[in-house]
Amino acid sequence: MTSDGLDLKISAGALVLPGGLTLDDLFHARSAVVGLDESFRVPIGAPVTKPLTALADAVGRPIPRGVLLAAEALAALPEKPKRRTGLVLGLPSLFSETEYVEHMLVHRHDVAAMERLHWFLGDHPLHLLQKRFGLTGPAARVDSACATGNDALIQAGIWLQQGLVDDVWVVAASAMLNPVAVALFDHLKALTERRDLEASCPFDARRRGFVMGEGAAALCLSRRPEARALGYLRGWGQSMSDTGFVDLPDDLRVVEGACRAALGGRDRVAYVSAHGTATQANDLMETRLHHRLFGKAAPSIPLSSIKSMIGHCLGAAALIEAWVCLAALHRQTAPPTINLRHPDPACDLDVVPNQARPIAGALALSNAFAFGGHNVSVLLERGEPWLD
Amino acid sequence: MARLIRAGVWLRDQEPPARKHRLYSPGATAALSAVQRLGEVPKHAVLIAVTASLGPMVAAFDKAWRAAAGGLLVGPGFADTRARRIHPFTLLKALDNQVPACLAAELGLNGPCRHFHDSNGLWPILAANINSVEPTGTAVLLVATDVRDADEAVTRRRYLAESRELPPQEGAVALLMKADPAADLPPLGKPDVSAFAAALDFARGLAPPSPNPC
């Protein structure tokens, strides 16, 4: 699917990254992974450390941390909403369930405290953000687990293509770095067993699973001729793997189909943002996929995973990576895959090891593959120069 | 113009299908029942799923904590004995996107998927999504489900003082649609949402009512 001649402009963006990192830090190989306290089942993670103040005036409500992160990203956007600006909120349900459970564990003796948790559920977060930021257009909350960020971006593209609105703000957030969620993911054997701060090491032979991060991203999209274009959403592709909830497919045709739909017939891009979780299965699958997509050119097309620096921000990861792709195209520099000390020979790709490197070209492909079999890819194009 | 080909409905008082996998929540099982009533569904159909909160998590944790022998509710001991009482699939059952995942796994669907949380004002958005598929000629499978896990309902009544009354109806609905070039209706093309927009603005006090909003 492509945008059929209509320019889907990305006019602004903002990130809330773990560890106080900035966009610039991602091009300087800095890591947000730190040790966690003993209430966590695993010893390391990448938490957001800055105070979340964007909804500080919403007193008396136990606002979920995921919503606070989303609000922080929206507040950092350098634009004001237009009339009937739409809102796509990418916020997987699980964040609220785990916070809800934590709250229950603390307040189970206090029915009144628990009752306030209605603010965690349903479309309350969506309406809270609409009201806070004056977004009067249509709004929806999408959820495809770790591919949520890309699906939120695609949804904004559909609304613009279909003329539902002229402007859409997209925000995705994830705040699952709490003991409940970490314990649950650990049950699934998805988290790394390593204790060292270099454990988030996609494509490394020592990878043992992902390091959980938290964060948020917000992007402004517009179809107005007068809107700035820091970049463009040029294509997208989605598919479902019918292999079960956590299994990756052996047959990559369906995954490849999503990527090819996003590429729209193009056989080369300047940069690929990998899903790159550092699980054994995912990184091998992405290596095979890269070879299938680009054939003989595959080794010369750089692919990297910023999850090596910020961990896996789950529902927010793909939208963070989309904005980083545009920054990479603007800077003509690929962000690195750090912690790559012992490259896995089975992952025989240019994964931009350990430090950023120049790239050449105007297009980047950003991939996300989620629990539940969601395969979602977006193609982004460089726009006008950024004012750094 | 998208033509409705078949519709399937599952309501709470009907027998659910045999579950192939224990990780499916009641909401996902209901959605599967509704879709199975459609008969064969094209594998490449665009799946548009709308789900309400499925939420088996709170009940699962509550059971585990009740079964555990005292101690701190949070803190250093959290991740040990008591956490092991939580079934590993609890995480997966609590993911709302398990509805499209369940449908894909059970029915072999491998087309695009768009999954929404149920909310007010969703219908114009669903219409735009259905419309966006029309030029491709691909079938659209629209599924909406809202079924609460019984354990979850009990737990929420206990801690959230939610109503003891069950909702008037729970269930799932599935609609299979396809672009129909032969239909004697003009193509929707871009949806004309001007009346919707005008009504919305009027309701919010942003604009006077259109003399002929329809």
Automatic annotation (TrEMBL), chain A:
This is Ketosynthase family 3 (KS3) domain-containing protein. GO terms for cellular component: cytosol. The keyword Ribonucleoprotein does not apply. It comes from the Bacteria. Keywords: Transferase. Pfam families: ketoacyl-synt (PF00109), Ketoacyl-synt_C (PF02801). Belongs to the thiolase-like superfamily. Beta-ketoacyl-ACP synthases family. Residues 1-382 form the Ketosynthase family 3 (KS3) domain. One of its GO terms (biological process) is fatty acid biosynthetic process. SUPFAM superfamilies: Thiolase-like. GO terms for molecular function: 3-oxoacyl-[acyl-carrier-protein] synthase activity.
TrEMBL record, chain B:
This is Uncharacterized protein. It comes from Acanthopleuribacter pedis.
